[in-house]
Amino acid sequence: MGRHTTGRGIDALFLRRMAARLDRGAASVVRSHGLTVDQWRMLDLLAGSGPLPMAALCEELSLAGATATRVADRLVDEELARRSIDDRDRRRVVLRITGNGRDLRADLADSVEHAQREQWESLDGPDHDRLARLLRSAGGLQAQ
What we know:
The chain starts with 11 loop residues before the first helix and ends with a helix.
């Protein structure tokens, strides 16, 4: 258990540390292809969900609006995504993955998953046990 936690309830700092660990795994793969982890996550989200407005991207990726815009700009500049007008609300702009983006995502997905799995498997005993307890607890909350 971390020095700064009580061990009770949901430990947000611990979960952030675990998420950062998975991000390091992803970064080890995507960096060599000129992407940041945020760019990878946005590309991966678009591949799985289809076109999304910026507000939804911000929410799903936990990014501030300005950060999400910079990430999207880079994907558009690299022709991995494109902006278009929302068919249902012409005031909104949506971001959609391009063929190049879909191909790059397909090329990297297995390697990213493998790198993240290595990060997960390298957890030490106490962190592994703690994360397992949190996940079981969260599963119990969902069942209620």
